[in-house]
Design goal:
alpha+beta; 1 helix; 28% strand; extended
Amino acid sequence: MLKRLHLGIPITIILAILICTPARAAWQEIGRMAASPPQGNQITFHSPEATVIVTVLAPDLVRIRLGKGAALGPDYSWAVIKTDWP
């Protein structure tokens, strides 16, 4: 019984690696990004592959938006309700 258990663990690890490999293949680098001058509490980074906007909402709260290409989608957040902090 113990011998079977020792054989099952490596097989489980190998299967997990084989299943996870295709998921990692979907990641793409966004490459080198150039920063625009800050506008108020946000700064925008651009590259041909992506646009990133970093907005400081409070001293301990930062919102990061990432979009493919030059344009971002609609400005909507399921996590951040309030965007104007004292």
